[in-house]
């Protein structure tokens, strides 16, 4: 989604005789809006993504044009259009070279063209595209709300030019930052990539990934995370499984929603559904109460003991399993003597009624800890 410079150029080149003379490799830049500026010093007014028109009325000669294109490029402009006439006689080659080197599209427009006509004409396409983008986002939200009506919603998406077949994933961005709310993060994402499909659904910020492979999805997610964390602290991104049709997006979203807090708890900033391992079996269970009961049967008595005696036997058991049942490493982790760990393990066994040296019992206890991780006991 997003109107590119190339699209606007195709629409206006013949009608308004606009000519591309530099930065041709940057015509895929998205255009947010059309803007008028007349001096290099005013480039800081740009928000990013503007196609800038100028007549040169406030300047003399040609030397300023090089600095002008440089400042527009440095401040995030999408491209520049020089209105050739009494104030700009010609474009210096140095300006053209700069635009070529930095993929910054440079156009010229004859003086006979009224700027009010071409800017109004181009803004129409940007406004229409924004309406289409909002319509598509609304339809994607409807798929999450009413997945049973996916087929009819899919037809509406196709009518808006959105291909319903392909490869899709729902990703959820979660942040503890008080400085940035969902609207602020969405604005940041749009600045990062105007083509990103992002919308708010309930308390979740949802990004729809449309990359063709897992490797591409991983790369784009890591780029997204790096961009956000340079501005927003404590961000987690959970990603549901890939689906082959947009009507199945609700399944991918449900998976991403289920694992987002698990990702944060495990300290994983980016967590794909495929990485769940044994958690996948637990999360796909249709009876959370059954998992809760299992947890209580295995570790409930130990947690009760810890609460009553201000002890940490549950943690000791967990670290023991995480250190592959190595007493020495567990003792080092807890900064105690190995004999203390041996005493604790014997006591743990008597409390939970299991011989923790038996492999089957180790597996049962480990499963209980996995259930605790996904917080079914909340």
UniProtKB/TrEMBL annotation:
InterPro entries: CdaR-like_regulators (IPR051448), CdaR_GGDEF (IPR041522), PucR_C-HTH_dom (IPR025736), PucR_C-HTH_sf (IPR042070), PucR_dom (IPR012914). Residues 313-371 form the PucR C-terminal helix-turn-helix domain. Gene3D superfamilies: PucR C-terminal helix-turn-helix domain (1.10.10.2840). Residues 14-126 form the Purine catabolism PurC-like domain. Pfam families: GGDEF_2, HTH_30, PucR. One of its GO terms (molecular function) is DNA binding. The keyword Transmembrane does not apply. Keywords: DNA-binding. It comes from the Bacteria. Residues 161-258 form the CdaR GGDEF-like domain. Belongs to the CdaR family. This is DNA-binding transcriptional regulator, PucR family.
């Amino acid at each position: 989604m997003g109107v590119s410079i190339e699209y606007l150029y195709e629409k206006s080149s013949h009608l308004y005789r606009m000519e591309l003379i530099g930065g041709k490799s940057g015509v895929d830049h998205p255009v947010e809006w059309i803007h008028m500026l007349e001096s290099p010093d005013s480039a800081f007014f740009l928000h990013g993504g503007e196609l800038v028109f100028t007549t040169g009325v406030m300047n003399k000669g040609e030397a300023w044009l090089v600095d002008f294109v440089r400042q527009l490029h440095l401040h995030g402009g999408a491209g520049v259009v020089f209105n050739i006439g009494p104030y700009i006689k010609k474009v210096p080659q140095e300006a053209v070279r700069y635009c070529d080197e930095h993929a910054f599209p440079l156009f010229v427009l004859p003086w006979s063209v009224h700027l009010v006509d071409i800017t109004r004409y181009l803004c129409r396409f940007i406004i229409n595209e924004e309406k289409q983008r909002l319509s598509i986002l609304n339809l994607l939200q409807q798929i999450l709300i009413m997945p049973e009506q996916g087929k009819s919603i899919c037809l509406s998406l196709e009518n808006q030019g959105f291909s319903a077949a392909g490869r899709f994933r729902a990703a959820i961005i979660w942040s503890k930052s008080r400085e940035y709310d969902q609207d602020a993060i969405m604005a940041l994402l749009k600045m990062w990539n105007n083509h990103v499909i992002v919308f708010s659904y309930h308390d979740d910020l949802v990004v729809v990934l449309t990359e063709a492979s897992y490797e591409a999805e991983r790369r784009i997610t890591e780029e997204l995370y790096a961009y956000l964390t340079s501005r927003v602290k404590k961000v987690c991104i959970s990603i549901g499984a890939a689906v082959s049709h947009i009507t199945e997006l609700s399944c991918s979203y449900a998976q991403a929603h289920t694992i987002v807090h698990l990702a944060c708890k495990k300290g994983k900033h980016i967590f794909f559904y495929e990485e769940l391992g044994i958690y996948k079996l637990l999360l796909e269970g249709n009876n959370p109460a059954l998992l809760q009961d299992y947890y209580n049967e295995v570790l409930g008595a130990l947690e009760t003991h810890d609460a009553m005696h201000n002890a940490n036997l549950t943690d000791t058991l967990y670290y023991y399993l995480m250190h592959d049942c190595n007493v020495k490493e567990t003792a080092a982790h807890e900064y105690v003597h190995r004999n203390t760990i041996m005493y604790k393990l014997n006591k743990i066994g008597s409390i939970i009624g299991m011989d923790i040296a038996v492999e089957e019992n180790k597996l049962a206890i480990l499963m209980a800890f996995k259930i605790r991780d996904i917080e079914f006991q909340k």
